[in-house]
Amino acid sequence: MGTTNHITTKWLGKKAFESNNPSGLNFKIDASPDDGGEGSGLRPKALMLSALAGCSGLDVAGLIKKMKLEVDDFHIETIANLTDEHPKYYDAVVVEYHFHGNNLNEKKLQRAVDLSVEKYCGVMEMFRRFAKMEIKTFFHKK
């Protein structure tokens, strides 16, 4: 049997909730004013995209260090299509990895991305179960 994660999410009134995390930090979830909330927290579906980018980003950052690669800056853009019908979900997601620097080892950085996407990132694997995934890598010389 695998590891179990247990998260507690407590209603704060109206459409706001507070959720804990194994890190010991809490965060607030809220709906937009259009949906009856106050917009004072993070949106659940968008959080899934942050979790996807964060999971893969942690892998890639670890591999950058392990491979001793020179990267001045690195960010991930996650662009997702939401279905029109309820329950709305992401059916197609593009994940863009952007690397900035004068001395980028493009081959090794691409290998780091590939390892995360294909082998290490569990959130990526979860997304593959319900969405068409497209991965793009960009190298920006300064």
From TrEMBL:
<dbReference type="InterPro" id="IPR015946">
    <property type="entry name" value="KH_dom-like_a/b"/>
</dbReference>
<dbReference type="InterPro" id="IPR003718">
    <property type="entry name" value="OsmC/Ohr_fam"/>
</dbReference>
<protein>
    <submittedName>
        <fullName>Putative redox protein</fullName>
    </submittedName>
</protein>
<dbReference type="Pfam" id="PF02566">
    <property type="entry name" value="OsmC"/>
</dbReference>
<dbReference type="InterPro" id="IPR036102">
    <property type="entry name" value="OsmC/Ohrsf"/>
</dbReference>
